Amino acid sequence: MVSVFKLVTREKSADILIELLNSGELTVSEILKRVGGSASTIIRRIRELIDFRLIVEKSSEKWPYKKILRLTDYGKKVAKLIRAIKLDEVKVLKQSPARWILLLAYLTGGAFESLTRLVKFMFILKEEYGFKIDYDFVWYKYGPFSKDILFDLDAMELLGFIRIDERLLGYNEIDGEPIIKKTIRLTEKGRKLAADLLFSTPQGHVNILKDIIDRFYKISLRQLKEYVYSKYGQQTHQEISI
């Protein structure tokens, strides 16, 4: 029996998953146009991805009735991992929220201080400014957190776009856990890529990035956490309890 790993490495499988991740839902004909290649190959891959429960097929609710393809929750996780691996492809990177990480680091002088702050920035960009960011956030005692961001950071470090420096600040007085400050630094390769991304990014989006930096980059992490909690924490906890 074919494994999921072998399936996603087959021709066009990864392209189909990434296109669905970027778009939310597509018809077969739309996938054919976006992915290209042999129609028989695309259709065969779609059937295989459905069989492995990475994709679900549903009928549209309005006329003209069409078959709509969407990723399952499992499919989204697989697609995000594939996208992270392919971030060295400009087309993939431009459609990934990872590009905002590179631009934030570029606009703060080539280095972004604190992974915790970065996660909060991405959350605010999604919730407050309406950026299309498909990272899944969960709430902990320090506010929203996303493993998806860690996947993309690891991928960008492996691809040579960034390096992550760690500095021990001390130890937590309550549980004795080390307090480590992580800084995301652009490499020369990353700076060049970020400059190219900045040139092709709409000015409105650039202005928003500059605005969030002006509002939240110089304040303390405690102030930033309090802001996020006061504005979104209660709403999130209510949603969880429903």
Oligomer: single chain
Q: Report the helical percentage.
A: 55-70%
Count of spatially separate domains: 2
Tell me how many strands there are.
8
Cα Rg: 20 Å
Low-pLDDT sequence parts: 237-242
The description of the largest β-sheet is: 3 strands, antiparallel
Shape type: globular
- H and E order: HHEHHEEHHHEHEEHEEHHH
What share of residues are in beta strands? Answer: 15-25%
Mean pLDDT: 89
Question: Could you characterize the architecture of this molecule?
Answer:
The protein contains 12 helices and 8 strands. The model is unreliable at 237-242 (pLDDT under 50). With 242 residues, the protein is of the alpha+beta class. The strands form 3 sheets. It has a 3-stranded antiparallel sheet with strand order 1-3-2. A 3-stranded antiparallel sheet has the order 4-8-7. Strands 5-6 form a two-stranded antiparallel sheet. It folds into 2 domains: 4-77, Orthogonal Bundle (Arc Repressor Mutant, subunit A); 89-241, no CATH class.
List keywords for this structure.
single chain; 242 residues; alpha+beta; Arc Repressor Mutant, subunit A; 2 domains; three-stranded antiparallel sheet; disordered C terminus
Concise summary:
With 242 residues, the protein is an alpha+beta fold.
Layout of helices and strands, plus pairs?
Layout: H1 4-8, H2 13-23, E1 25-27, H3 28-35, H4 39-51, E2 55-59, E3 67-71, H5 73-85, H6 90-94, H7 98-107, E4 111-113, H8 115-127, E5 138-140, E6 143-145, H9 147-158, E7 162-171, E8 178-186, H10 188-200, H11 203-216, H12 221-241
Antiparallel strand pairs: 1-3, 2-3, 4-8, 5-6, 7-8
Helix pairs in contact: 2-5, 3-4, 5-9, 7-10, 8-12
